[in-house]
Amino acid sequence: QVQLVESGGGLVQAGGSLRLSCAASGRTFSIQTMGWFRQAPGKDREFVGSMRWHGSSTYYADSVKGRFTISRDNAKNTLYLQMNNLKPEDTAVYYCAATLDLGRWDYWGQGTQVTVSS
């Protein structure tokens, strides 16, 4: 089992920045990729970006490219999402997830709210 706990959400004005953290615990050695997703009110959950847990490859949704950056600290088993130049449309609950590369996202955090005011 892997446990994921997000933190760092909050209220920020448009153009501002936030950094989300996702602390992983448990059988973290089994993780292949970790990612960030978000869900805005009334909308489906959408992919934000991901990073290989044992490499450096990253992928981003077009909507956040150039504004969001994913990084990790393996010593702390923590994944980060640096969000810059935030827009009101970035308002959502942000979730981190982990996959064992078995064709699905196996573990999810509880989510953290990000609200961007105009």
Polypeptide structure, described:
- There is one protein chain.
- The chain is mostly beta strands and 118 residues long.
- It is 0% helix and 54% strand.
- The chain has no helices and eleven strands.
- It has strands at 2-7, 10-13, 18-26, 33-39, 46-52, 58-60, 68-73, 78-83, 92-99, 107-108, 112-117.
- The strands form two sheets. Strands 2, 4, 5, 6, 9, 10 and 11 form a seven-stranded mixed β-sheet that branches.
- The radius of gyration is 13 Å and the shape is globular.
Write the layout of secondary structure elements.
Blueprint: E1 2-7, E2 10-13, E3 18-26, E4 33-39, E5 46-52, E6 58-60, E7 68-73, E8 78-83, E9 92-99, E10 107-108, E11 112-117
Parallel strand pairs: 2-11
Antiparallel strand pairs: 1-3, 3-8, 4-5, 4-9, 5-6, 7-8, 9-10, 9-11
Question: Outline of this structure?
Answer:
This protein has 118 residues and is mainly β. Helices cover 0% and strands 54% of the residues.
Q: What would you report as the Rg, rounded to the nearest angstrom?
A: 13 Å
Count helical runs: 0
Biggest sheet descriptor = 7 strands, mixed
Distance between the termini: 40 Å
Low-confidence stretches: none
Structural class call reads mainly beta
Mean pLDDT: 96
- Oligomerization state of this entry? single chain
Number of strands: 11
- Taken from the alpha-carbon principal axes, the silhouette is globular
What is the ordering of alpha helices and beta strands? Answer: EEEEEEEEEEE
In what range is the share of β-strand residues? over 45%
Give helix % range.
under 10%
